Amino acid sequence: MNEFALLLAATLSAGTVLAIAALGLLINERAGIVNLGAEGMMLVAAIAGFATAVHTHNDWLAFAAGAAAGAVMAAAFGLLVIWLNTNQYATGLALSLFGTGFSAFVGIRYTQEKLAERPHFEVPGLADLPFVGPALFRQHPMVYLAVALMLGLAWFLYRSRAGLVLRAVGESPESAHALGYPVRRIRLAAVVAGGALCGVAGAYLSVIYTPLWVEGMTAGKGWIALALTTFATWRPARVLLGAYLFGGVTMLQFHLQGEGVQVASQFLTMLPYLATIVVLVLISRNPAWIRANMPASIGKPFFPGG
Amino acid sequence: MLKLEMRPQPSRLMSWLSPLIALVLTVLIGIALFSLLGKDPLKALQVFFVEPLRSGYALAELSVKAVPLVLIALGLAVCFRSNLWNIGAEGQFVLGALAGGWVAMQADAQSSRGIVLLILAAGVAGGMAWAALTALLRDRFNANEILVSLMLVYVAEMLLSWLVYGPWKDPQGYNFPQTITFLAPTKIPRLVDGWRMNIGVLVALAAVVAFTLFLFRTYRGFALQVGGLAPAAARYAGFSSRGALWTALLVSGGMAGLAGALEAAGPLGQLTPYVPVGYGFAAIIVAFVGRLHPVGIVFSAVLMSMFYIGGELAQSRLGLPKSLTGVFQGLLLFSLLACDTLIAYRIRWSRPS
């Protein structure tokens, strides 16, 4: 593989972590709930997935464990926020702080373990194409599943009845409630689904992408995923695009380091975080653009009869 | 079925009881967690809740951790009360340590003790400057302050890392990533010989008084809180939301920076990559558990620094990871938020009809 193809391949892989998490958060936010606990959920899922992979040698079980861990944490968050009406931002922060500590606590005995590099999935025929073949068609199946997930989610949101109800709950919970939809249960389902996807992303990170467990290994990816939903103005296709863009920035940093660019490595490591800020600024400066698809009741509590 | 019912008036009793119930819940969940993981919960409880209070020296150590938490949380309380979500205090703390540390490194053996004031002023300025970035981007471009301030934490940590590995590295430091040890005149004065407790305690107490007056006795403080509770009412009253944004972020950034400078020139005495230990994040919990009230913040900061010391002891005595601190901190905030529901609502048992 030439260098560009390598960079492209790595970009897709790095972007997949962000894409899956951000698509999950998108479901949350479309239902009107912001979960600042993404970082914590991803970390706990990363260690759950990693431990499962170490003991069972089965990656799909590892993904399932990650999804379960993310879902359980999201359910705790959802019950507090939706049924007890706690502040969404504070509760999400608590989830992140708890998850960071808890994952380090249970993960300590796995810090010496290392998983073998996972075999890639070759798309028959296409994988041997010159230039882009190896980069695009020799990836872990999860990379393709992320694309499928985006397509499925787009169909769900804009073409299915359930998706319409979900969006209604995020736009105007009062109206949805008046029409007889169980607003709180729908919101909880969305939050749990979002948590499960953040969990899959976390497990992909520790089992496939690195593959090892390090304390705090997400290094802000949960927060960047949160930023991505804003960046994408809550549209699934743009989430995917944004994720690859950020994956690219992350990879560029390693690439430049490898090239021996005369910049201290710390400045290269800053790049994804600075890029997030720049992108947020660019998107947010146009109020019309950002409001076009923003769920109207995002972040606002809803308590029937309260 | 259990049902929540809104109280006609928020319960004053519950607003005092809720933090206590939350603490009990945290301990109970902690016990369950320890038992599940096959550790002796009693030993852990002793390490977290008894050891940090056992001697004068232990109490002085408690103050070393509580001071930065009080200072940062006071600033954050102003932010949260005006409904601004600055969660990048950790980065503002680092910038305060960098600015204060830079001044400390300019000192020589003949420098007067007055340089300590310069160090603290530089820390405040550093923290303010870092928070001002968030304020500017929010003010000019409407960029979400949660994400911007948080991203700036990572940037600040990288800046620190670059400086201590690069330009500021001590040439006599055996290649360790650290600056020179700051000279004697720059050291934050200690209160008792042999204990690390320093004048930060007095600074923090003065700050508690100042913030109480600011929040509850000044026009500016009042305007900030109205803006947070009822933005429409604040606009109608002519309170500037831009003013609130800048005030809240600069105040909280300055306080975090002050804490950073006190830490750098106090207990640490030099800069290393390990300056940030999570005070900025823990202070978020301190602020909430303290009810966003200056006096409450003192109590919750002491509690939180017990968790810090407990975490360190758990590591050295029980061989458990230090990260337990974060587990307890997160659990406490969770429990508190859940218990706070009881202030506005009461639980009613109703038969499903």
TrEMBL record, chain A:
Domain of life assignment: Bacteria
Keyword line: Cell membrane, Membrane, Transmembrane, Transmembrane helix
Cited Pfam families: BPD_transp_2
Record localization: Cell membrane
Coiled-coil regions listed: none
Major subcellular site: membrane
InterPro entries reported in the protein's UniProt record: ABC_transp_permease
Topology term for the membrane: Multi-pass membrane protein
TM ranges: 6-26, 33-54, 60-82, 89-110, 141-158, 188-207, 213-232, 239-257, 263-283
Name assigned to this protein: ABC transporter permease
Organism: Sphaerotilus microaerophilus
